[in-house]
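[Discussion] Sanity-checking designs against the backbone

I'm trying to build intuition for which residues belong where. Below is a structure token string of 100 positions. I'd appreciate it if someone posts a full sequence so I can compare it with mine line by line.
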């Protein structure tokens, strides 16, 4: 499994997503290196299909992408069981990662 965490510096939520992703991997008993990708330009955002910070790619696919969501340098919001958040929950990440 290949994991990439895409982010830009101005968004603090990527650090929360990183910690939750590490926790989810630990719960699954998986040792996977997470490549952190700093996105700094609109061109890079287009190239990566970056739907905002933070974005997680699992084997090159964004499991949380919503059809029609714009690509660009912005903070991303996620629907979670607790409401709108800046990162998926550990439970959501476990669910997504357990499929791979």
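Best answer:
Here's mine. Compare freely.
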């Amino acid at each position: 499994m290949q994991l990439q965490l895409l982010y830009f510096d101005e968004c603090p939520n990527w650090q929360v997503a990183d910690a939750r992703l590490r926790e989810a991997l630990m719960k699954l008993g998986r040792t996977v290196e997470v490549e952190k990708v700093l996105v700094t330009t609109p061109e890079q955002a287009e190239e990566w299909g970056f739907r905002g910070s933070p974005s997680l790619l699992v084997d090159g696919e964004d499991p949380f992408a919503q059809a029609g969501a714009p690509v660009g340098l912005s903070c991303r919001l996620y629907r979670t069981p607790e409401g709108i958040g800046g990162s998926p929950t550990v439970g959501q990440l476990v669910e997504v990662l357990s499929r791979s």
